[in-house]
Amino acid sequence: MRVDVQQKVLSENDRLAASLRETLSESGVYCPNFISSPGAGKTMLLERTLEMLPRGTRAAVLTGDIQTDNDAQRLARYGYPVRQITTGGACHLDARMIERALESWKIAELDYLFIENVGNLVCPASYDLGENDKIVILSVTEGEDKPLKYPATFSRAGLVIVNKIDLLPYLNFDVELAKDNIRKIHPGAEIVELSSTDKVGFSGWLTWLDNKRKLSRERHASFASL
Amino acid sequence: MHELGIATSVLDAARQEAAGHPGARVVKVGVRIGEWSGVDPESLRFCFDAIAHMDAIDAPALEIEFMARQNRCSSCGITFALDQFHIECPRCGAEVTEPVSGNELELTFVELEEA
User: Does A226 fall in a domain?
Assistant: First the structure.
């Protein structure tokens, strides 16, 4: 006997993610999910971002790694609440881990919930975390063809950050070629170039982020007035 | 890399379906995997076979329907398989076309056998 099912394999994850997304959007929180290969600079980018957020911004961070709480320790220096999710071997975060990590946090009081995924360009693409955008970081010490090698991740990116551009004088990295490759996979992708070390390009990134925060706020306000 | 977790989800969902038919056992499970789903079909099969055999002697078989990445051109209306990453319409040359398949990660059917 054959029973037709027609459901997503990760329907349980997707159901949890949808409920998280609803909670976040009802609260007017902007939630980006940072994805990159290991070493592309996710933690450093978040450190500089937290450091440069306008005074009075309400932010919290969830950071995922297979082992250690090193990243949480680095991020906690900036005064915002940080929680480490140690996946214990899993190569990605899933919606259940986010739900558990958020317990006891007052989401409604936040402007931003930053999620730093496990360093990996493959698996995180499959798991919806309830985020507003996946932000994919490509550093210039990698190959320009990374977007072509990992299309699933780059095709889902709400923003691609080309990071470590302070190193360009020492490398043969062709930024235009990398951007062409991103657009082949994801036409119309938004791309920001920056360096977390010397903060070149940071004003563009912070403006982008602030616009997203305002949009989340406005959506929240229109919810509230219904 | 995460195919083991995906395989576990597939098997769990199939057994949940079987639970609605007392006495029946799962003999085959069908999944649809897109080229850009981030899941490797062969690796998924390997993981599925490994975990299915762990707790059953007659482990269910896995049938994989692979979906190539296809785009649709909204200007001239054709649907075409992507040659590498060229998303331009091969007929009318439109530069922007929309994906219609290739992102699937779905459970399609469960085949049950009454005991």
Answer: no
